[in-house]
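ok so for the tutorial part 2 we go from a plain amino acid sequence to predicted structure tokens. step 1 is just haveing the sequence, like this:
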Amino acid sequence: TWKWVVGPMFLYLCERLVRFWRSQQKVVITKVVIHPFKTIELQMMKKGFKMEVGQYIFVKCPAVSKLEWHPFTLTSAPEEDYFSIHVRIVGDWTEGLFNACGCDKQEFQEAWKLPKIAVDGPFGTASEDVFSYETVMLVGAGIGVTPFASVLKSVWYKYCHDATNLKLKKIYFYWLCRDTHAFEWFADLLQSLEAQMQERNNAEFLSYNIYLTGWDESQATHFVVHHEEEKDVITGLKQKTLYGRPNWENEFKTIAGQHPGSRIGVFLCGPEGLADTLNKQSISNSEADPRGVHFIFNKENF
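step 2 — the prediction. this is what the tokens look like for a chain of 302 residues:
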């Protein structure tokens, strides 16, 4: 037995040593941004840090806890000179981080007073393959929208730098959430992308649909009253928010009809139930003919 155990144990110990060494490297918090609904954005720098879209890191703040490591998806793009995470304050550890960063104070916080942060990573996810397709469907549910902040930023940087060499030609983005207010920072990102694409006369590059899955009677009345306004009353986007859940069969059939003979990447960050639905639709809407349309399903669950 020991012959079978020694090899894996040696590799495991090597991996732990590498992770320990990476976690000891100096990390500098360059900026802390407070977003609505108690969400903070930490912008950081670390020597030798290289990332790809959709990856995640483990974060430790010794001022809050010397033992706890928490995973966060990177929301910055590889083209930016920093890496960032968005942290929503929903528990004891995130509350401690919020206070340690001075976000509970009204006055300006000096950079040298910010807490020390240890970072382990980055670690890969399925979203890294998004640039391998000409057409992609990106589906984020709730907090699962965070990897696509990195993806959409990177796509835009690449598009502005050299659109002719960018293989990706069309993005269909779906965001399902019960409450968009908790992710107003992401709606701000979409607003920025929407405005920039209109300036470049390429509004068709990104098609997005936001589905609100939870609302009450008073909200519904407010939506009806303001439905005719140019911009959506919830997100401020020109694309109006939809209510309920998408009919995935219709969505897949429509996209398949618009891109015959294509390999379409389907990327999900969301719950397991939604993953099963999208996987079945990807299989049923892919043609047996190798020259026909094929949906390639990729997922990460939470």
